[in-house]
Write a structure and sequence with these properties.
This protein has 197 residues and is of the alpha/beta class. The chain is built from 9 helices and 5 strands; from the N terminus they run E-H-E-H-H-H-E-H-E-H-H-H-E-H. It has a 5-stranded parallel β-sheet with strand order 2-3-1-4-5, sandwiched between helices.
Length: 197
């Protein structure tokens, strides 16, 4: 199974991606987690990414590409993946598609879109900042990240919808209800070979 989670920051895609990975024995590939590990390690990639992450901006494509591709190829060998945070732009999505078309068993099978109200997302992110001590979740940065999502990431939904891959899920529900809806859609995908919304 090869899945992508698309949702605004703070909508719960990381939580749902981890649950999906456990449910279906897939690798959870989070670009944010990968970059935070690089930043904490003080690696050259981490130092370059840190300034973008602190502002709430997307890390440039050239820094993201190689790191994510290696993780995806590794995950495919172990049964599949749930992508969380990549691709985030149309250029990343198109590049990933061109690469995947030439590699067997790598291309996405479905895109899970968690639809969550902007104010609810703001509330969740501010709560997360307090609970986890995340310095990248300030009120100003949250608004900026949501604006970046609307401008650069939300267009992915149309791109993937044209390929018949998008599964819309109401992300305003309790976590377990969201997960149940996702599992129902993924199970239908596994039995029919095409996403249902």
């Amino acid at each position: 199974m090869r899945l992508l989670m698309v949702a605004p920051p703070g909508a719960g895609k990381g939580t749902q991606a981890r649950k999906l990975a456990a449910q279906y024995h897939l690798e959870h590939i989070s670009s944010g987690d990968l970059f935070r590990r690089e930043v904490e390690a003080g690696s050259p990639l981490g130092r370059q990414a840190a300034a973008f992450l602190a502002r709430g901006d997307l890390v440039p494509d050239e820094l993201v590409g190689d790191m994510i591709k290696a993780a995806i190829l590794d995950a495919v060998q172990r049964g599949g993946y749930v992508l969380d945070g990549y691709p985030r732009t149309l250029s990343q999505a198109r590049e990933a598609y061109e690469v995947a078309r030439h590699l067997e068993g790598v291309e996405l099978q479905a895109v899970i879109h968690l639809d969550v109200d902007r104010e609810e997302v703001r509330h969740r992110m501010l709560a997360r900042a307090g609970a986890e001590g995340r310095t990248d979740d300030t009120s100003i940065t949250i608004d900026h990240r949501l604006d970046v999502y609307d401008e650069l990431t939300r267009p992915l939904l149309d791109y993937y919808a044209q390929r018949g891959l998008v599964i819309d899920v109401d992300g305003d529900q309790p976590i377990d209800d969201v997960f149940a809806d996702i599992v129902s859609a993924v199970d239908a995908l596994a039995s029919t070979g095409s996403p249902t919304t």
